[in-house]
Amino acid sequence: xxxxxxxxxxxAALVASACQAATPSASTSAPSETTAPAPTGAPETPxxxxxxxxxxxVLRFARxxxxxxxxxxxxxxxxxxxxxxxxxxxxxxDVDSDEVTILPDLASEWTESPDATTxxxxxxxxxxxxxxxxxxxDDVIYTAAWSAQNPTAFKQIPPDMWVSVxxxxxxxxxxxxxxxxxxxxxxxxxxTLERPDATFLRRMASAIYLILPEHKLKDxxxxxxxxxxxxxxxxxxxxxxxxxxxxxxxxxGGASFTAKKDYWKGRDSEIDELVYKxxxxxxxxxxxxxxxxxxxxxVPPAEGPGLExxxxxxxxxxxxxxxxxxxxxxxxxxxxxxxxxxxxxNRPQTIEQVLGGLATLNYTIPPGFKVYDDIxxxxxxxxxxxxxxxxxxxxxxxxxxxxxxxxxxxxxxxAPALQQxxxxxxxKVELTALPTAPYVDLIQKSNxxxxxxxxxxxxxxxxxxxxxxxxxxxxxxxxxxxxxxxGECIYTDQFNAAAAVTGEAQDAxxxxxxLDLNExxxxxxxxxxxxxxxxxxxxxxxxTIYPNERESFQKILDWTYSQ
Length: 563
Hints:
Dipeptide-binding Protein, domain 3, disordered N terminus, about 25% helix, twelve-stranded mixed beta sheet, D-Maltodextrin-Binding Protein, domain 2, four-stranded antiparallel beta sheet, about 575 residues
């Protein structure tokens, strides 16, 4: 036992040192808009400044994670993309920092039928696009209908809420507008769902449901959505109804934004310019310490001590709503093998000795679910794991290929520990570390692996956030489905049934679903990593980082920054 722990720690330390340089760190009517509470340690008053009062305020920031250089919903999937989308676009509704309270965005008010089937939204008549054209119900209908007509174009997150509109599923591959989209007038739309869904409003606050301009994109095809200038975040081409426009087009290194003047919500952002950097974590940490960045979201927690003495910086270390898990290829792994792996990984030990205690233990099921009394927690038991491996169909002479992102320390630090646990189980484990684009291609196209590591998401927000990962399509790939029969949609059906009810009826469905996931283990949820956010003390006003940090810019109009 002691030898294994030492080896794990040594391997993790070697990878970490190789990858990082040393640091020098449901509401039925719209509530009135309120200012979100500041995070722990946020300044109550702006720091004094000697800068000229007419100088533009520039916020320089980064979020350490993967990124795909695209802004159209068909390719949205990373948190960096979603944060950019919230800067430039609007959804019908937003969510407050409690992750529950629904706030106005394009819709200034809304109503919901008692059975959660029909939703009526009244758009703010002042809303306009960047080119001055008004935002109307026609834009909402265009966005919803196009998504329902082209569901297979969505490569990361499926547009489930648009497909769930009455007639939405039948619209796939056609030019038909789903019958559940009813225009009352230019600023009022009634949306009727195929079945009740008590989670509809909350899920509509996600960036995947941003509203697109019909007058700009009405002739766009699914194929063009991957490459059109608008879709790639191009200055002068990508227009939105959000508080900022692109001032520097999206590239692999990030993008820049300029606040709109006379913004339609009645106030302009107090931060004139945003510089969003996509770069390696060690670069962001060094720039924080040097005063070259003002905010970094998701700093590796191990970097926190090295940044404690940096002048003008504050830290917010919080339990994350994202997950760290192992996903399996359903074509070459069986249930006994997956269960064997669950028993073989000593999750508490890894959290304490590899992650420094900066994570919350998961019990193999999505963290948005209750841990019911009859859930198998798969506590570490190597002998039980070996017995299950012997019963499985896996040929132990074969190589077990475990894929991971090569440019994220959340993977590279942990993967050697997991590799060693699985080798002690009796597997010949090969780590396949890839950059974002080939990693995504491996998972979604080639299907040439046994398992891959996932980090991030927002499944800790609520059980409904996990549904897209168990959809029959499952993020555009089949391997995440893993039903008892490839032709069944058992998880999709159970998620839909839970969304249609509330209270004890919903809990009974979720209990059964949790047990199914717990037994079949299409994914093994290992832990929820802590998130460390480091920011300048000059950030104030309503500045806060949401538990689901990819939604934090939904209230950027409340932020202030003193130069």
